[in-house]
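Progress narrative, work stream C.
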Amino acid sequence: MNSILSVPVAALILLTSAATSVHAKSYIAYISDSTSSSVVYWVAKEAGIFRKHGLDLDTIFIDGSVRGIQSLVAGDLGYSGAVGTAVINAKLAGADVAIIQSQVNTLPYFIVGNANIKSPEDLKGRTAAVHIPGTAADFAIRLALSKAGIAYKDIKAVTIGGAPARLSATMNGHTDFTIVSEGEKNQAERSGLKVIIDMAKLKVPFQFNCSVATRKRIRENPDEVRRLVWSLAEAGWYYKTHKEESIKIAQKYTRGVNRAVLDAAYAANVEFLVEDTYPTLEGLRQTLEIQALTDPRATKAKPEDFVELRFVDEMKKAGFVDKLFGRSK
């Protein structure tokens, strides 16, 4: 089966039901085809790291962490990539899910727009290409606007989807601005767009890329979850230490994005990827504080409610990441 899949969930159910009960293949969803959001999953699959850790795990593309978690809860997936906001919303709504490891613990985002936007304040009344509510891109654009003193209702938001589609809409003049990560920022500037707000400079603690499982799966398949957590940590190491191989993999999954864009994304990913893969409790805490302003359920929640840390704890105790990077304890 091709490692890059983009199929409706109904079709995925048919695929999974076709597998034998003894050797059923499991799926992990990556939730963005951006150059910066899913590289660890791509590398784990293509470099044989899943297989090395004894996992019969295939990747599938589901656009947006909200949809990924919905498919996870429905039982169509073993695991899903996600962002903290989507996990919080799902958990507060009753979904028994938990973050098992993290890849990026900040908001590496940029507001980019056409050249006639002179300042952040000039975004008011403009048309923005946005992602669906609950995604990191949605949270980031709302935060960026608030720091510019602009209410979300004071822009014309057009829901388009992932970063490549949002950027394309803005480059083609269908929208005035959008929010992107490092790789797309480079592409935006090459096309004549300008950076209006640099969120990365703010270094806001935020649970960005992370992996999610149901508590049921954690209870019933702890060894598989453990092997997944360790394999993704190794994939992060591989990415940081095998540049050409990793960029070649990214070219495959992003369908031939320009090399300069991939180089820029690689440099940013090397900086932001968390080596020990611990989720950011501070980022989750800050997100809960913001959500509590509109959702009373968030006032009673704690960051620890949304994570299962025992697998990263075990990995740290074993010194696995230190060994990968050649560090002595």
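Work stream C, second folded protein:
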Amino acid sequence: MIRRPSIPLALLATGIAAIVYFWIAISPAVAQRSAPRDPAEPQQSPPHPKLLPFPAAVIARKSIDEKSMRALIDRLVSCGTRLSLSSWTDPRRGIGCGRDHILARFNEVAKESGGKLQIVVDKYESASERTGGKPLALESVYAILPGSDPKLAKTLFIVSGHFDSRPSNVMDPEADAPGADDDASGVSVSVESARLLSKLAATAKGEYRATLLFAAISGEEQGLFGGYRLLEWAKQQGYTIGGMLDDDIVGADPATGAPHRVRLFSGNGEIDDCDSPGRELARAIEEIDGREHIRLIFRVDRYGRGGDHYPFYKAGLPAVRFTEPLEDYTHQHQTPRTENGVEYGDFAKYLNASFLGDVARDNAEALRQLAMAPAAPTDAKLTGAVTPDAKISWSAQDDPERAGFEILWRETTEPRWQVYDFAASPGETVLRGVSTDNHFFAVRAVGKNGARSIAVPTEMERRPPPVPAGTKQ
């Protein structure tokens, strides 16, 4: 007689419980993967318009000059500190030393562009508690590539990095503050984007309808001075902001498994049921560069932090922030030192040249396609409440280079748009059998070259429900 080993009752019960718990745990995921049990919208299949392909990517990864980017970072680090409170006149130490290196590099790029790139040094003053309440003289450097289309040349797309740095004490101009990652890395991206796009401007591949501005700004660590000033300066020059790309801390990727995607931060905005222009800019950049390169972060910035895109975002303009995948805070805002065997300080040796080159390519290609696109539509509206059909309307000026408009929709819980239909001209399009309640809608312009404007979400009629007299809504 063979005795089979018996399974203890307690162990058997534990196993059964584990199996039950496993199926309960995965059932939501299984349910989400199963076929939807909702009525189709519309009942008949939606239109399937033939859509223009996006422009082919022109800026190849191999065209990025990582050596020149690293050389600029090394020169900025050699200034010892670039705190905005430090010297603007000492050629070897202080923020003026950093400005001189950036200006020299921009002038080299401008010469290579055949004079297409225009260099501006913007001098201004600003004050905050981080200047002791006294006005501080500051300077930013802009390189401008004018647009070719008279109707769009006053639309401005910006890429920016800040060249000031800081030690642990933001009021100490004597302490070293190398600032390799924060934010010589972002400055190098802006300058490299200027090199790539101004070089293309001399060819058929470099036809930018809108104007491009490549910025290296100061005063960020003292209170986002450079960002506020850049917004003010652009308005003074009569520009409309088409998009602002802020590159701040984009040079390191030390986590296991690199390379990783760069994070792209965008705020939601303050309009009910409507994303901000910055969110739409982020979606456009991801669509151009690919999800394998861009990680969308639906938050205006890192928790408890700020950057130079913020003044633009608060003004209701399309602005986003690029930041590396996983920050190392021992190499940010730290006076160089070693404590308990840990080295503190923002040194160039901690940077990842390959990752930095990826970020430069992502910025430059996104800027190129956005500057090629028609103007975004205006006055996008959604009507049709309490009817079976959604009605989308919008306005746009005449543009012989525009092919038409894509009408976009998405589930209210989905992060990305899908194309529903195509319209050749502005006006109203009726989406028959599509509820106004279950989706968000947007419209974007499409050029004959395939370049898309950022999407413009539709605003809804506001119909608050009736309430008892005296009740506030």
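The two ends are 82 Å apart (CA to CA). No further action is required on this item.
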